[in-house]
Write a structure and sequence with these properties.
7 helices; Rossmann fold; globular; 195 residues; alpha/beta; single chain; seven-stranded mixed sheet
């Protein structure tokens, strides 16, 4: 009986504990990406696919953002090949907890394709695409959001690695040149002015 109660308490504790999608070794890659891509402060950014807010906090830690729009539907079961789709049903709660004291974060709970019209063309300094990891999902985000970026802005994303062939194909096809920079965490970056 005591063993059952302890097992139940352990299970409850583990369910409350925040799941970590990005290990600490990747933190520097995101900060480096932002600092290499953005030469000034007070930027307006969009993060598509925020999961539990770990990358959001890394972007904010650079001090480069006046406002960061965080777009994610926070739903489970959308892609059996994507660990974020089924790993943590508490991702939204973890995101809210991590960003609660950050006034520069604007949370948008929706699909990226549903809210693209909220942003004027050429009004955004930085976009990071890490939502749906299929070819169609990445290509759709690139088609919808690349025009939102200022002439001297940055278009970046995650999972430009062999295991995510749809991401690599969509990025390569859209830009028709390799990324201007890649990072050890699988992030990629294009300077809009060089396109």
């Amino acid at each position: 009986m005591l063993k059952d109660r302890l097992a139940m308490r352990l299970k409850a504790f583990l369910q409350r504990k925040a799941f970590v999608m990005r290990p600490n070794c990747n933190d520097q890659s995101l900060r480096e990406l932002v600092c290499r891509g953005l030469t000034h402060d007070n930027n307006i950014g969009i993060e598509i696919g925020c999961y539990a807010g770990e990358s959001t906090l890394q972007f904010l830690a650079t001090g480069k953002f006046q406002k960061l729009y965080c777009i994610d539907p926070w739903m489970t079961g959308y892609d059996k090949n994507d660990i974020a789709s089924y790993t943590n049903k508490y991702a939204e709660r973890d995101f809210d907890r991590r960003t609660a004291s950050r006034p520069e974060v604007v949370k948008i709970k929706d699909f990226s394709y549903q809210v693209a019209q909220m942003f004027d063309d050429h009004s955004i300094d930085f976009i990071y695409i890490d939502g749906e990891h299929t070819y169609e999902g990445v290509r759709n985000d690139l088609d919808l959001y690349s025009r939102k970026v200022k002439a001297d802005g940055v278009i970046a994303g995650h999972d430009y690695v062999d295991g995510w062939g749809g991401v690599v194909k969509a990025v390569n096809e859209f830009f028709q040149v390799p990324p201007h920079e890649t990072f050890k965490d699988g992030s990629w970056l294009y300077f809009n002015e060089r396109m």
